[in-house]
Amino acid sequence: MKNPAREKFLPLLSPYVDGELTPEERQQVETHLANNKESTAQVADFRAGDGLIRHALEMAADEVDWKAFTEEVMGKVTPEKLPLFERIKLTLSEMFTYQRGPLVAGFAGAAAAVAIAVPVSLQFAAQPDGYAAARVHVQTVSVDRDSAARPDVVETDEGDAVIWVVEVGGPLDADGGKKKKDKEDAEESFKAHGGKEGEL
Amino acid sequence: MSALAADPRVSVQADVVFASEKPGGVEPALEKMRATLDARKQYKTLKRLEGRKLELLFNRAQSFELPNKKTAVVRLLTLENDIATVTVKVPPTEATYKLAREKVLYIQAGAHDGGEVWLLLSQPR
């Protein structure tokens, strides 16, 4: 046979055990429990069940290694990515706030490096390599005193120069035609003629 | 800095080229040489035999032997206004000339192996 009072309080028994009722509801439930053994037994069952569950959870928790828990959770947390400008601003702000000393030292070092490197590089950049002329200019050409050969200088339109060695009286020998002719003008000197071709 | 200024030095690329009027092929890199000499002699073989970079110090001669047993001697005479004056001796000739940017001095250096040897002096690349 149904008990109307128990029917009324039955939905409140579990919240009562869990401490979720208002003080007024709690007072009503406790009055009901004082008069109803069936509900009292059910509340006892709820509490026993809660105790078992809590105990089981505690045992399960003991078996888990929580050492890396924080790191794992934090590793999975992706912070909200700020816009580039904001990130730069934040980084600079943090640097100036917390790392002012090293930052100033770094800037001073960089300035010193630039102050040294710039003059040195300019010096090397300005170091003459000897090739400032636009054209090869042959100033003089001479031949050995006893040579039968004579030089013939050509300065080309492109700015190059060619020194042909012409043997007097025959093809050029490996030794340059030595002793083939007793040259009176033993040493010739050539003054280049503004890029024009011509024999000495 | 003053040590650098007091110790002028110039780099010169010296290439030795075999040339012949007999057909044998002109190396692509020597096509400019062929064109330069073409008005006077039509070489059909131009082959680079060797190349070396000379570091010329003031008045200190550098010499090297050519394939035809001649000895070439190169010496830095002056370095004024970034223009170097160099003497080069390839018997029987000795020339004094001014270097120029990306220009070449071709020197006919004697007979060799049925053809001729040329010495090319230029700015190192």
What's the SSE blueprint?
The complex is a heterodimer of chains A (200) and B (125).
Chain A: H1 4-18, H2 23-35, H3 37-63, H4 69-76, H5 84-98, H6 100-125, E1 132-143, E2 149-155, E3 161-167, E4 198-199
Helix pairs in contact in A: 1-2, 1-3, 2-3
Chain B: H1 2-6, E1 9-20, E2 25-26, H2 31-37, E3 45-57, E4 62-65, E5 71-80, E6 83-90, E7 93-100, E8 104-112, E9 115-122
Parallel strand pairs in B: 2-3
Antiparallel strand pairs in B: 1-3, 1-9, 4-5, 5-6, 6-7, 8-9
Brief descriptors of the model:
heterodimer, A: 200 residues, alpha+beta, three-stranded antiparallel β-sheet, 14% strand, rod-shaped, disordered C terminus, B: 125 residues, mainly beta, five-stranded mixed β-sheet, four-stranded antiparallel β-sheet, 9 strands
Q: How would you characterize the largest beta sheet of chain A? A: 3 strands, antiparallel
Our Rg estimate of chain A from Cα atoms comes to 54 Å
- Overall outline of chain A: rod-shaped
- Residue stretches of chain A low in confidence (pLDDT < 50, at least 5 long) are 171-200
What's the overall average pLDDT of chain B, rounded? 93
Multimeric organization: heterodimer
The N- and C-terminal alpha carbons of chain A lie at a distance of 144 Å
Order of helices and strands of chain A: HHHHHHEEEE
Q: Report the structural category of chain A.
A: alpha+beta
Radius of gyration of chain B: 15 Å
